[in-house]
Write a structure and sequence with these properties.
heterodimer, A: 325 residues, Rossmann fold, 2 domains, 11 helices, 14 strands, 38% helix, B: alpha/beta, six-stranded parallel sheet, two-stranded antiparallel sheet, 8 strands, 10% strand
Chain lengths: 325, 348
């Protein structure tokens, strides 16, 4: 077991799976010679050659569609959207072609789309988004949003082996900032199993991706201030998502905050909140609270972006309000 | 100014010999064209009988184009045909009764009722099912070719689009990527001169869609899509060039769509005299005349084939009608694939 950054864990997972399975290949913009905009695939072309680490033209539709075709021919393609924002250009290939293929005619489409996502460094409206909500609405796709280096590796392995199209959101703000223990070897985990990031008894925060750390900071402050005990559930994957773990925690604490960095209306938090309302109403001592980004594009300037992204103090205020309910 | 090559028609028996077709091949092409048209004519009947839900699309006038290209493909090549390309499914061996079952939304249809009309394909026959968003399967075909190139397999992907579909960005991205990587893929454009009601002159501003090939670094060829032997010869040449590592070709097969966009559309916007003019070039009549002139097809053999096709299709309709309706309990099944489904020859 070694301590690795989140980025290193993704990179190692990809490399190990490419060594294990010759069907796996990578395609994307600037991923070969340059090693990727964030250097996740640095050195890959030297090791695996130009046939398995393909620098493509700036063509998200062709990249994603080509992955589907290659997958239907027995390959295990992994493509990179240089920024998750650009997946809008591949929407049709994912939602119309890849997601519906198996239901329509029974042919699996095992592709992985890597999506560097999230804000926090003045990327502006087109380099900061968290577009998972669009795709969570589409039957036939799977979605992973790892928060820790260990999960980043486990889920990239699981994503590549999954027989379905998988969107793998890797949060850019975690790339080099977050380090953690990453077990060696084959650590693939099942999709749809949440992780209890920390146990608690007064209140539950359901979240995923970078917001796990925002929740952690707020929970720590709450504990220090008045001893409020917060349970944090990291969903790890949002399609499928671990309803049982969320409902069990709701039953335990009776108060739930759903937290995400994506915008508010019809964000994935709405689904979680609605499910709790439908299935755990009797357990609740307070309305389910959503803490999310507001319904605006992601602004560029630091004060605006800070106001846009849910901050630990926003979550702390939410904890206080809900605890007092 | 046109830059694409215009294919000269196949005329002589010598041309055919060069195309590597024997008389049995020539008759099989004829049979496949008759089956193709016969399926769609019977589809009309089933539609009027209320047995086909939704809408119904045909490719009347495109039989030479679809059968000609599919005949030039090898068994392990891959294709992504679109809605006027029934001849591709027929030529690749899709059983007509399953096509009727598909039209009727039955469990024996290729999509088992999950999708309708010509949104179907049997992957075991090397075909991938189209979606409505044309030409979204062009990049997919390019990906098949990419897999063949990576694995050094002598296989070719054939990507279909139409004059309408060629105006979308997918077509550009697919052809550009294929050109850049010199992939073993052949692009077929079914140019039937209308995208629903929109004529070519409102779709593009160049002489021929095949002219675009030059911009992607490969050859474009304009072919009379009503002439099955010329279609075959050009498709065969392009496919074998791709197989040999020579990269893509764009073949524009020019026809006229002889019916409306779908069964509800009477195509009032197509001038009647235009339809009459193209009716003289009917691909099946044209080919039949040629076969008879070259003494490949006798009157009695022609009658025999007609009877045989008629029986095949009538039996097929009957069998399809016996196929079960899908069970509503199955609604939720199959949204996601299970891991064991990957344990197939395609995915190993």
């Amino acid at each position: 077991m070694a301590t690795k950054t989140y980025l290193q864990a993704i990179s190692d997972g990809l490399r190990e799976e490419m060594r294990r399975d010759s069907r796996v290949f990578l395609i994307g913009e600037d991923i070969g010679v340059y090693g990727g905009a964030f250097k996740v695939t640095q050195g890959f072309q030297q090791e695996f050659g130009e046939d398995r680490v393909i620098d493509s033209p700036l063509s998200e539709t062709a990249i994603t569609g080509a992955c589907t075709g290659a997958a239907l021919m027995g390959m295990r393609p992994v493509c990179e959207m240089q920024f998750s924002d650009f997946v809008s250009c591949a929407f049709d290939q994912l939602v119309t072609v890849a997601a519906k293929q198996h239901y329509r005619v029974g042919t699996p489409v095992p592709i992985v789309v890597r999506l560097p996502s999230g804000g926090g460094f003045s990327g502006g409206p087109f380099h900061s988004q968290n577009p998972e909500g669009f795709f969570a609405h589409c039957p036939g796709l799977k979605i992973a949003c790892p928060a820790t280096p260990a999960d980043a590796k486990s889920l990239i392995l699981a994503a590549i082996r999954d027989p379905n199209p998988v969107l793998y959101f890797e949060h850019k703000h975690l790339y080099r900032r977050i380090k953690g223990e990453v077990p060696d070897g084959d650590t693939a985990i099942e999709f749809g199993k949440a992780r209890i990031h920390q146990e608690g008894s007064d209140l539950t925060i359901v979240t995923y991706g970078a917001m796990v750390y925002t929740a952690e900071e707020a929970a720590k402050a709450a504990a220090e201030r008045d001893g409020t005990s917060v349970e944090i559930i990291d969903l790890r994957t949002i399609t499928p998502w671990d309803k049982e773990a969320v409902l069990a925690s709701a039953a335990k604490t009776s108060k739930v905050i759903v937290l995400h960095e994506d915008t508010h209306t019809s964000g994935f938090g709405a689904e979680v909140a609605a499910t709790i309302a439908e299935e755990a109403f009797e357990s609740l001592d307070a309305p389910v609270m959503r803490i999310t980004a507001p319904d605006t594009p992601v602004p560029f300037s630091p004060p605006l972006e800070k106001a846009f992204l849910p901050q630990p103090e926003d979550v702390l205020a939410g904890i206080e309000r809900l605890a007092a309910y | 100014m046109a830059v694409a090559r215009e294919a000269t028609p196949v005329e002589s028996a010598e041309d055919v010999k060069q195309a590597d077709l024997d008389s049995e091949d020539l008759l099989q092409i004829y049979r496949n064209m008759l089956i193709t048209r016969g399926i769609e004519e019977r589809g009309h009947i089933l539609y009027r009988q209320g047995k086909i839900p939704g809408s119904f699309y045909t490719g009347r006038g495109n039989e030479a184009a679809s059968v000609g290209v599919a005949t030039a493909m090898r068994a392990d090549d891959i294709g992504t045909p679109i809605q006027r390309d029934m001849g591709v499914h027929v030529t690749r061996g899709t059983e007509p009764w399953r096509i009727f079952a598909q039209y009727m939304g039955r469990t024996d249809g290729l999509a088992a009722g999950r999708d309708g009309n010509v949104h179907m394909a049997d992957i075991r026959l090397g075909l991938i099912a189209m979606v409505s968003h044309l030409p979204a399967l062009m990049p997919v075909a390019v990906g098949c070719a990419l897999a063949f190139q990576i694995r050094r397999e002598p296989r070719v992907a054939v990507a279909w689009s139409g004059d309408g579909a060629m105006q979308r960005g997918d077509a550009h991205e697919a052809m550009n990527l294929a050109g850049v990587r010199k992939l073993p893929v052949v692009f077929i454009v079914d140019n039937n001169q209308y995208a629903y009601s929109t004529p070519n002159r409102l779709e593009f501003a160049i002489d021929h869609l095949a002219d675009r090939a030059q911009a992607y670094g490969f050859e474009g060829v304009v072919v009379d899509g009503t002439d099955v032997l010329t279609v075959y010869r050009e498709a065969h040449a392009a496919i074998e060039k791709a197989r040999a590592g020579g990269g893509p070709t764009l073949l524009e097969l020019v026809t006229l769509r002889m019916e409306g966009h779908a069964v509800h559309d009477d195509a009032f916007y197509v001038p009647r005299e235009r339809l009459e003019e193209w009716a003289h070039k009917d691909p099946i009549e044209r080919y039949r005349r040629w076969l008879k002139q070259k003494a490949v097809l006798s009157e009695s053999a022609d009658d025999e084939i007609s009877v045989e096709v008629k029986k095949l299709l009538n039996d097929a309709m009957k069998r399809a009608d016996e196929s079960a309706q899908p069970d509503a309990d199955e609604l939720l099944a199959g949204v996601y694939a299970d891991p064991e489904e990957l344990d197939t020859p395609h995915h190993r």
